[in-house]
Amino acid sequence: DLCHMSTGYFSRVFTKETGMNFSVFISLKKIEWSKQLLEKTDLSIAQISDELGFNDPGYYIKTFKKYENITPNVYRKYYQEKM
To answer: Which of 32, 42, 61, 62 has the largest CB neighbor count within 10 A?
Structure first.
């Protein structure tokens, strides 16, 4: 509504301009934010999942693994060992 576009048109323009669909873009941004929270806070996986707007921590873990090829817990442990 803000841009005076239908959702379908917005989706087509977004995909054309970025090379990815909007839902993938949002997922990638959430995972980037998630990595920062895993690195800089002691929040639990459930708290991070909730903070990012995932309905279920299991779905958050699945999404994280899809893009990073490891679970959030493994990512956090690996990051902490590096430091």
So the answer is: 61
Based on the structure, what is the number of domains in the chain?
Answer: 1
Q: Is the residue at 62 inside a domain?
A: yes
The residues, ordered by sequence, that sit 6+ positions from 30 with a Cβ below 8 Å of its Cβ are 52, 53, 54, 63
The CATH number of the domain holding residue 48 is 1.10.10.60
Residue 31 has pLDDT above 80, yes or no: yes
More confident residue, 2 or 29: 29
Residue with tokens 């279920």: 56
| Token reading at 16 | 């054309």
| Phi and psi angles of residue 27, each rounded to the nearest 5 degrees, phi first | -60, -45
Angle among Cα 7, 13, 14 to the nearest 5 degrees reads 85
Query: What is the Cα Rg of the chain in Å?
Result: 15
